[in-house]
Amino acid sequence: MIINTDSTKPIYVQIAEWLENEIIAERFTDDEKVYSQYQLAELFNINPATAAKGLTILVEDKILYKKRGLGMFVAPEAKMMILEKRRSQTLTKMVTDIVLEAKRLSVTKAELIQLIHNCEVEI
Amino acid sequence: MNVIDCQKVSKGFRRTNALESISFQLTDQKITGVIGRNGAGKTTLLKILAGLTKHKSGEVNVFGKNPYNNLMVSANSILVDDQMTFPDSLTLEELLRSAPAFYKRWDAQLASRLFQYFKLDSKQQHSKLSKGARATFNMIFGLSTRCELTMFDEPTNGMDEAVRTDFYRALLKDYITHPRSILISSHHLAEIEHLLEDILLIHNGNVVLHDSIDEVKEFAVAVQGPIADVERWTAGEKVFHSKIIDGQRLYVVVKNNLELERARLEGAFIQVLSASEVCMYVTSETKGGIDDVFK
User: Fold this and answer.
1) In this predicted model, what pLDDT tens digit does every residue of A7-62 receive, in sequence order?
2) Do residue A11 and residue B197 have CB atoms under 8 angstroms apart?
3) Which residue of chain A has the CA closest to B169?
4) How many beta-carbon pairs under 8 angstroms link A with B?
5) Are B197 and A5 in contact (CB < 8 Å)?
6) Which residues pair with A47 in a beta bridge?
7) What ipTM was estimated for this complex?
8) Model-level pTM?
9) Which residue in A14, A50, A103 has the most chain B C-beta atoms within 10 A of its own C-beta, making it the best mutation to test that interface?
10) How far is CA B221 from CA A1, A5, A41, in A?
11) Residue B104, Cα to own-chain centre: how many angstroms?
12) What is the C-alpha to C-alpha distance for residues B174 and A23, in angstroms, rounded to an integer?
């Protein structure tokens, strides 16, 4: 992954999301040690404090846990929690955007549902 | 501990005031970007911090001391810019060899490795170097001093794209292994954004913003929509920039706040700005901008 500084997402959010994706893909499994802030800084060419912020939000979400002096580790059930979080937050936000855009384009509710149906069939 | 503590610092040159009243503190071991338009006062501020010029009023403390004419401060800090001069009686190689006498934390290995990597000519004199090579040498010198306070004033002026990228990478890698306080001034924020922890935004000789890069990024947003709606959504807000598009739609940059989320649901087009755009709009002088010149 290449960090996109022009993105609407702050760099630390991009780092947190990248780590989440690694956990979803099971490249990090339960109780495995993840990269330190310095390794992340080196890896993505970013300030270590920014990398630390990315790790901190995952600790706050209980996806990672800290072992004093040893580093950050993947919490048990982390993958489940990430999937759950993405469903409830990310998907809700995306749906809001879709509904807003539909409103702008005067697409009715029925038409929107039809679009989703069509999409499902294609996939 | 505060490495730098400035209280109402001012500096004037004849009729103009380069620094009006600068107040800020800088805590230990951070990389801070000093950002501002041309003539904002970045260089003047860095020169005062390095002890190269004397401020007019207010109080400046670097490592708890007034930096002007102070040996302790000058042994522990360095300002890298394109006005650095080195004696021409010495070759580049000799310059690097004499450096440890002035900087006790000098890293000779780092200096010679960087010197070889960037393929500088060790027998050359500093004043005979091309603009890009001089900037590269100054950067190598500045990094290798490992000074507790290392300041770069537009360090990449004259460097080509590849050298710039290498320089920023070298700076970051060395900072990771040897954390220290680093100030970098630039008017290309986008180029250094990823390296920074904090931003110090200077405008007309004053500090306008001093915050972490993410806070700066979230400081302002752009709102676009029909004129009447945008005016209603942003009523009472501080407008940094406004522009009418097609005579019907209004584009404004305002301070970010939660109420804008409601505007989004009402159909406002809200755009998140990059840190460099925020800095640009917050320091913009006039409403309208370049388009008005051509009216």
Assistant:
1) 668 889 999 999 999 999 999 999 999 999 999 999 999 999 999 999 999 999 99
2) no
3) A45
4) 57
5) no
6) none
7) 0.80
8) 0.85
9) A50
10) 27, 16, 28
11) 26
12) 30
